[in-house]
Amino acid sequence: MYNTPISALLSLLMQITKTQLADCLLIQPPVYQDNRGLFRELYVAAKYQAAGLTQAFVQDNLSSSQQGVLRGMHFQRFKPQGKLISVLHGEIYDVMLDLRPTSASFGQWQGIYLDAQQAQQLWIPPGFAHGFQALSTSALVSYKTTAYYDPTDEGAFNALDPKLAITWPQPVTVMSDKDRAAPAFEVVKQQLIAAI
Ligand SMILES: Cc1cn([C@H]2C[C@H](O)[C@@H](COP(=O)(O)OP(=O)(O)O[C@H]3O[C@@H](C)C(=O)[C@@H](O)[C@H]3O)O2)c(=O)[nH]c1=O
User: Fold this and answer.
1) How does it assemble (predicted)?
2) Dist. CA 138–CA 71, nearest whole Å
3) Which of 88, 83, 95 is nearest to 144 (CA)?
4) pLDDT computed for residue 1 by the predictor
5) What is the pLDDT of residues 145-173, one digit of tens each?
6) Which residues contact 169 (CB under 8 A, 6 or more apart)?
7) Residues of the chain with pLDDT under 70
8) Of 10, 80, 160, 194, which is the most buried if we count CB atoms within 10 A?
9) Ligand 1 nearest atom to the CA of residue 72, by list position
10) Does the complex come out with an ipTM higher than 0.95?
């Protein structure tokens, strides 16, 4: 629909901010409010490609969580997924951790608050672990991925690992059994280094 210069211009309407972690982006698309409510675009290929999200998305996911629920920290080892995160209802604290051994921010994590009213989105490229906590009564989170879900390729480390000390904002009410049983980050880190 748009040629490259026009899509580059359109992408100026989106505010793109670099995060502390290399290659992750905080995206603030315009939110149009009127007496009916609001309108926002979730994804427009030409605009997001112009902003640097050039890989094709192949899957859309939706999860609903009650307050305090913690999901993560997850990744795929050989078929890593880039993720474009949007909150459709409520508020979350979203955490990404750089798993790329050659990256300047390898092993570092950053948490970012995302909420449906402000409508920020987070771009987490392939090569990161991801998790979030629902902070509102309920939170509806949608995310696009650049690789298919493959349960045989799934990896995880413990989001409550005291050495990582991720500062989850609220008491953790529920985690999956799988997430509670996940190893400490150091185990995953050593595996990643050994695989170089
Ligand atoms: C992630 C995923 C799960 N499932 C199934 C497997 C399982 O039966 C059920 C719930 O899966 P999980 O417990 O892994 O769901 P969840 O803990 O919400 O997993 C997600 O967490 C966040 C933090 C991410 O970043 C995602 O990539 C994904 O790992 O849904 C799919 O069919 N497709 C998928 O893409």
Assistant:
1) Homodimer.
2) 14
3) 83
4) 47
5) 999 999 999 999 999 999 999 999 999 99
6) 93, 133, 135
7) 1-12
8) 80
9) 23
10) yes
At the topology level of CATH, where does 4-194 sit? Answer: Jelly Rolls (2.60.120)
Measured in Å, residue 125 CA sits from the centre of ligand 1 at 17
The DSSP element (H or E) to which 47 belongs, if any, is: helix 45-50
pTM of the model: 0.94
Q: 50-61, pLDDT tens digit by residue? A: 999 999 999 999
Q: CB of 110 within 8 A of CB of 162? A: no
Looking from the CA of 117 toward its CB, the CA atoms found within 13 Å total: 4
Measuring from each residue's beta carbon to the nearest atom of ligand 1, which residues come in under 6 Å? 61, 63, 71-72, 74, 130-132, 149, 176
H/E stretch holding 140: strand 138-145
